[in-house]
C-alpha cells in the first residue's frame, strides 16, 4: 500500500495550486463571475497548455494516461479557488462519456479538440420530475429517416451556454424511469429547434433550461448503443461525483483556513475569540470533518476504476454522503464563527458555503446517496 | 391545568383573523408563503393598519396606549397573524424602544415618541453593534460629548437592520471612558435626518439589503433625547435585550414553515410519486414538527408564569437558541425538498415583482437564498454561543 503522490502528481498539484492562488484571488473570481460567459477563455487555454484537459484520458484517446487521482488533484485546487471554468461538464462528464462510449470517429471529432481546448460540452440529463433519478427521463427521441428527432425539456444544464455540443440523455424506448431504453445523443449546441434560457446558479456558475422542439440529428450522433446508455451515464456520473467530492475537500480546506485565521485574530471580551473553548472544539470538529471528507474522496478516487460497478457505485455514494455531511458542518460552522461577517456577500466564506451547499444538491444529496449506498450494501 | 381555549378567546382569534383577511394585501401574503423578500410598503402599510386598530403595540399596557391583552390573547394574536401570512412586526419601535421609553423616559419623552411608534408613522432602528462590539457589546466606542444642551456624537454603528428605512435610531453611546465599560454608556435617540448621519448598505449572502453601516460624524443631538440618566444606559440596554430575546423564538412562523414544507413535499416529484411518499424525508419533517411543538410548549410555560405575575428568567435564552435552530432546519429542509431546482439564482424573483417566470416550480427561487439567509438567526440578537453562556452562568450557576 502506498498513499503518497508520485513526483508527477506532486508537480501537477503544485501547478494547480499556483493557478488557483494566482488567478483566483477572491477579487478576481468576483470579476470573472460577473463576465457574461462566467469563465475566462485564457484560463481554459492555459488548462489545455498545461495538459489538464487530457490528463485523465488514455494515450490511445489522445490523452496523457492519468486517471481519477489526477482529476482529484486538480479538482481539489479548483475547490480552493472556487474556480469557475467548466472542467466538470466538459472534461469529466462530456469527455468521460465520449472516451467510454464513443466511436473512433467521435473521439477524433470531439475528444481530440476538447483536449486541445477547442471544444466544450454540457451534459443534459435532468428534467423537472427527475430529482436524482438518472433513469427518470422523458425527453423523447424518435426515429426520423436515418436519424432521430428529439423533443422535450432538460433542466439545470451546466455550461450549456458555452458548450459546442450538448450530450443529451433521451428516451428511445421503454417506460418512464426504466433504465433500459435510454440513449445518448451528441447535439450541436446551435441545432435548429434547440432553445435555451440561461441563468447563473447560487454559486455563480452558469446553467440553462433547454427546450428541444423536433431537433433533428443524424444517426452518427448516437453516443454508444441505442437503448443502452444507462450504464455509461451511471458510471460517468459516479466519476463526476468523485470529482465533485475532491472539489468539496478543497472548499473545506479553504473555508476552515479562513475561519481558523479569523478566530485567531477577531477579538471580543479582550481576547481572540479562538480562546473560547466552545469555538476551539467546533474548529476541531471542522478539522475532523475535512479529514474524513478527504479520506472518503481518496478512497472513492482509488475505487472508481473498479471493474465491479457495485464497488464503484458504493464508493461514489459513500464519498458523496460524507462530503454532504462534512461540507454542511464546515460551511455552517464557518459562518457561525464569523458572526455577522459570515452572512455577508463581502467575505469569501459565504461563497464557499454556497458552493458546498450546491455540491450537496448536485447528482443527489446526502440523503439520496445514503439510501443508494444502503440499498447496495444490503443487496451484497 | 388546561390547554383548551375559553369561548371569549376563540372569539378573539376570529376577530384577529377577520382583521388580517381584510387588511393584509394579497401580494404581501403571497410573499410570506413563497419566502420572497418584503419591500418597505409590505411592512409599513400593514403596520399602519395594525396601528390604526390599536394592535401594533400589542405588548404594551393600556396606560401607554396598548390594548392591555392577557398572555393568551398575545399568543393567539401572533399565531393567527402568522397563519394568515402577515409579515412579522418590525420590532425596533413597538417591541424594543417603545417599552424602554415608557419604562425609563420622562413624561415629555413619552408624549413625544410613543404615539409615532404605536401608529408606525415613525420607524426605528437599533444602533447597538459596532465593528469592535458584537458579542462584547459593552466594548462600544461611539462617543457622545456634551456641549451645552447638545451631545456631539462620533462613531460607527454596524449591522443596523433597516436603517435605510429608519426615521430614528436608538443608540448606545459612550459618555464616559473611566471605570467599568458598562458604566459609561448612555441610551440616546437620534433623528436620522440630522446632518452627519450616513447609511451605507451591507449586502448579505443572498444578495439582499437589510442591514447597514451607520456612520455618525459630529452629529448634534439635543440632550432631551437622552433616555434615563447619563452613563446609566446599560440598564435600558439590558432591559431591551431581554424583551428582544423573548420574541425571537419565532414559533408561529416556524409552525407556518412546517406546513409550507409539507405542502412543497406533496408537490415535489420523485420517482413518479411525490416527496411526500418518501418516508425518509417525511420523517425529517415530523422530527422538526415535534421540535416546534416542544418549543411552543416551553414558551407557553413561560407565558403561563408571566400570566401569574412572574417575570421570564434567563432561561428564555435557551428558547432563542432552539428557535433559531428550528428556523434554520426548516429552511434547510425546504431547500432539500426543492432539490436540483434550488440551484438557479433568480434575484429578480426574490426582491421585485417581476413578470419573470420562475425556473422550476414557483417555490424554488427563494429556497436556497432563504437557507443561506437564515444562518443569521443564530448570530443576531445575541449569538447561540452567547445565549448558552448566559444559561450556563445564570441558570445553571457554572
Ligand atoms: C473503562 C475505563 C478504563 C480505563 N482504563 C485505564 C487504565 O487502564 N489505566 C489508567 O491509567 N487509566 C484508565 N482509565 C482512566 C481514564 O484515563 C480516565 O478516566 C480519563 O483520563 C478521564 O479522567 P477522569 O475519569 O478523572 O475524568 P475527569 O478528568 O474528571 O473529567 C470529567 C469530565 O470533564 C472533562 N474535562 C476535564 N478536563 C477538561 C478540560 N480541560 N476541558 C474540557 N473538558 C474537560 C472530561 O472530558 C470529562 O468529560 C480508564 C477509564 C475508564 C472509564
Ligand atoms: C442579519 C443581522 C442583523 C442584525 N441587526 C442588528 C441591528 O439591527 N442592530 C444592532 O445593533 N445589531 C444588529 N446585528 C448585530 C448582532 O447583534 C451581532 O452580529 C451579534 O451580536 C454578534 O456579533 P459579531 O457579529 O460581532 O460576532 P462576534 O462577536 O465577533 O462573534 C463571532 C463568533 O464568536 C463567538 N463568540 C463571541 N464571544 C464569545 C464567547 N464569549 N464565548 C463563546 N463564543 C463567543 C460568537 O458566538 C460567534 O460565533 C445584526 C446582525 C445580523 C447578522
UniProtKB/TrEMBL annotation, chain A:
Q: Which residues form the Acyl-CoA oxidase/dehydrogenase middle domain?
A: 122-215
Keywords linked to the UniProt accession: FAD, Flavoprotein, Oxidoreductase
What's the protein here called? Acyl-CoA dehydrogenase family protein
Locate the Acyl-CoA dehydrogenase/oxidase N-terminal domain: which residues?
6-118
Which InterPro entries does the record match to this protein? Answer: Acyl-CoA_Oxase/DH_mid-dom (IPR006091), AcylCo_DH/oxidase_C (IPR009075), AcylCoA_DH/ox_N (IPR013786)
Lineage start: Bacteria, Pseudomonadati, Pseudomonadota, Alphaproteobacteria, Hyphomicrobiales
Q: What PANTHER family does its record include?
A: ACYL-COA DEHYDROGENASE (PTHR43884), ACYL-COA DEHYDROGENASE FADE28 (PTHR43884:SF20)
The Acyl-CoA dehydrogenase/oxidase C-terminal domain, residue ranges:
237-370
| Annotated CDD domains | ACAD (cd00567)
Pfam families (UniProt xref): Acyl-CoA_dh_1 (PF00441), Acyl-CoA_dh_M (PF02770), Acyl-CoA_dh_N (PF02771)
Automatic annotation (TrEMBL), chain B:
Q: What is the protein name for this chain? A: Acyl-CoA dehydrogenase family protein
The Acyl-CoA dehydrogenase/oxidase N-terminal domain covers which part of the protein? 7-120
Classify the source by domain of life: Bacteria
Q: Where is the Acyl-CoA dehydrogenase/oxidase C-terminal domain?
A: 231-395
Q: Which InterPro entries match?
A: Acyl-CoA_Oxase/DH_mid-dom, AcylCo_DH/oxidase_C, AcylCoA_DH/ox_N, Mycobact_Acyl-CoA_DH
Q: Is the keyword Nucleus assigned to this protein? A: no
Boundaries of every Acyl-CoA oxidase/dehydrogenase middle domain copy: 125-218
- Organism, by scientific name, is Reyranella humidisoli
Q: Which UniProt keywords apply?
A: Flavoprotein, Oxidoreductase
Amino acid at each position: 500500500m502506498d498513499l503518497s503522490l508520485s513526483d508527477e502528481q506532486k508537480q501537477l498539484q503544485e501547478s494547480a495550486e499556483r493557478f488557483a492562488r494566482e488567478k483566483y484571488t477572491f477579487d478576481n473570481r468576483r470579476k470573472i463571475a460577473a463576465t457574461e460567459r462566467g469563465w475566462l477563455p485564457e484560463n481554459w487555454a492555459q488548462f489545455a497548455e498545461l495538459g489538464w484537459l487530457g490528463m485523465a484520458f488514455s494515450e490511445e484517446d489522445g490523452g496523457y494516461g492519468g486517471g481519477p487521482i489526477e482529476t482529484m488533484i486538480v479538482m481539489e485546487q479548483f475547490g480552493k479557488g472556487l474556480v469557475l471554468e467548466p472542467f466538470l461538464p466538459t472534461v469529466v462528464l462530456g469527455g468521460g462519456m465520449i472516451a467510454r462510449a464513443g466511436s473512433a470517429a467521435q473521439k477524433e471529432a470531439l475528444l481530440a479538440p476538447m483536449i486541445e481546448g477547442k471544444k466544450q460540452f454540457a451534459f443534459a440529463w435532468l428534467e423537472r420530475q427527475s430529482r436524482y433519478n438518472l433513469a427518470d427521463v422523458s425527453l423523447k427521441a424518435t426515429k426520423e429517416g436515418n436519424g432521430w428527432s428529439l423533443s422535450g425539456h432538460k433542466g439545470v444544464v451546466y455550461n450549456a451556454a458555452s458548450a459546442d455540443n450538448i450530450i443529451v440523455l433521451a428516451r428511445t424506448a421503454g417506460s418512464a424511469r426504466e433504465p433500459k431504453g435510454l440513449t445518448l445523443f451528441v447535439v450541436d449546441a446551435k441545432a435548429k429547434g434547440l432553445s435555451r434560457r440561461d441563468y447563473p446558479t447560487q454559486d455563480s456558475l452558469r446553467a440553462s433550461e433547454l427546450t428541444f422542439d423536433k431537433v433533428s440529428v443524424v444517426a452518427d450522433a448516437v453516443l454508444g448503443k441505442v437503448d443502452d446508455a444507462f450504464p455509461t451515464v451511471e458510471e460517468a456520473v459516479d466519476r463526476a461525483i468523485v470529482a465533485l467530492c475532491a472539489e468539496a475537500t478543497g472548499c473545506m480546506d479553504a473555508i476552515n483556513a479562513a475561519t481558523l485565521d479569523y478566530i485567531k485574530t477577531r477579538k471580543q471580551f479582550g481576547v481572540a475569540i479562538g480562546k473560547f473553548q466552545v469555538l476551539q472544539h467546533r474548529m476541531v470538529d471542522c478539522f475532523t470533518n475535512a479529514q474524513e471528507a478527504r479520506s472518503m474522496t481518496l478512497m472513492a478516487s482509488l475505487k472508481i476504476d473498479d471493474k465491479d460497478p457495485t464497488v464503484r457505485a458504493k464508493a461514489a455514494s459513500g464519498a458523496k454522503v460524507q462530503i454532504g455531511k462534512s461540507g454542511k458542518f464546515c460551511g455552517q460552522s464557518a459562518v457561525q464563527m464569523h458572526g455577522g461577517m459570515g452572512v455577508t456577500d463581502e467575505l469569501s466564506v459565504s461563497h464557499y458555503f454556497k458552493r458546498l451547499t450546491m455540491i450537496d444538491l448536485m447528482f443527489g444529496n446526502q440523503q439520496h446517496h445514503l439510501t443508494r449506498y444502503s440499498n447496495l450494501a444490503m443487496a451484497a | 391545568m388546561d390547554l383548551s381555549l375559553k369561548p371569549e378567546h376563540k372569539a378573539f382569534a376570529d376577530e384577529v383573523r377577520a382583521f388580517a383577511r381584510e387588511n393584509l394585501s394579497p401580494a404581501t401574503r403571497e410573499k410570506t408563503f413563497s419566502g420572497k423578500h418584503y419591500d418597505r410598503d409590505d411592512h409599513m402599510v400593514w403596520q399602519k393598519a395594525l396601528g390604526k386598530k390599536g394592535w401594533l403595540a400589542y405588548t404594551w399596557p393600556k396606560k401607554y396606549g396598548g390594548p392591555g391583552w392577557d398572555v393568551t390573547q398575545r399568543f393567539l394574536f401572533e399565531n393567527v397573524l402568522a397563519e394568515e401570512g402577515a409579515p412579522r412586526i418590525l420590532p425596533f419601535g413597538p417591541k424594543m424602544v417603545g417599552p424602554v421609553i415608557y419604562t425609563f423616559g420622562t413624561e415629555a419623552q413619552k408624549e413625544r415618541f410613543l404615539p409615532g411608534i404605536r401608529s408606525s408613522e415613525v420607524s426605528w432602528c437599533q444602533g447597538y453593534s459596532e465593528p469592535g462590539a458584537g458579542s462584547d457589546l459593552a466594548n462600544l466606542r461611539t462617543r457622545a460629548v456634551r456641549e451645552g444642551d447638545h451631545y456631539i456624537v462620533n462613531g460607527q454603528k454596524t449591522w443596523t437592520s433597516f436603517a435605510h428605512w429608519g426615521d430614528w435610531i436608538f443608540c448606545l453611546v459612550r459618555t464616559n471612558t473611566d471605570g467599568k465599560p458598562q458604566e459609561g454608556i448612555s441610551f440616546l435617540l437620534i433623528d436620522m435626518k440630522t446632518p452627519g448621519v450616513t447609511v451605507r448598505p451591507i449586502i448579505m449572502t443572498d444578495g439582499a439589503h437589510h442591514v447597514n453601516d451607520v456612520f455618525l460624524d459630529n452629529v448634534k443631538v439635543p440632550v432631551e433625547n437622552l433616555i434615563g440618566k447619563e452613563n446609566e444606559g446599560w440598564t435600558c440596554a439590558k432591559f431591551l435585550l431581554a424583551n428582544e430575546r423573548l420574541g425571537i423564538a419565532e414559533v408561529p412562523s416556524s409552525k407556518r414553515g412546517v406546513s409550507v414544507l409539507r405542502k412543497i413535499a406533496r408537490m415535489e416529484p420523485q420517482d413518479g410519486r411525490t416527496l411526500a411518499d418518501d418516508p425518509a424525508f417525511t420523517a425529517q419533517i415530523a422530527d422538526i414538527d415535534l421540535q416546534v411543538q416542544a418549543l411552543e410548549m416551553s414558551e407557553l410555560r413561560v407565558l403561563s408564569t408571566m400570566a401569574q405575575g412572574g417575570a421570564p428568567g434567563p432561561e428564555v435564552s435557551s428558547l432563542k437558541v432552539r428557535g433559531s435552530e428550528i428556523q434554520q432546519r426548516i429552511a434547510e429542509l425546504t431547500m432539500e425538498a426543492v432539490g436540483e431546482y434550488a440551484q438557479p439564482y433568480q434575484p429578480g424573483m426574490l426582491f421585485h415583482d417581476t413578470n419573470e417566470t420562475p425556473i422550476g416550480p414557483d417555490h424554488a427561487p427563494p429556497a436556497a437564498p432563504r437557507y443561506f439567509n437564515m444562518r443569521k438567526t443564530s448570530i443576531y440578537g445575541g449569538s447561540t454561543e452567547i445565549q448558552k453562556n448566559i444559561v450556563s452562568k445564570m441558570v445553571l450557576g457554572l
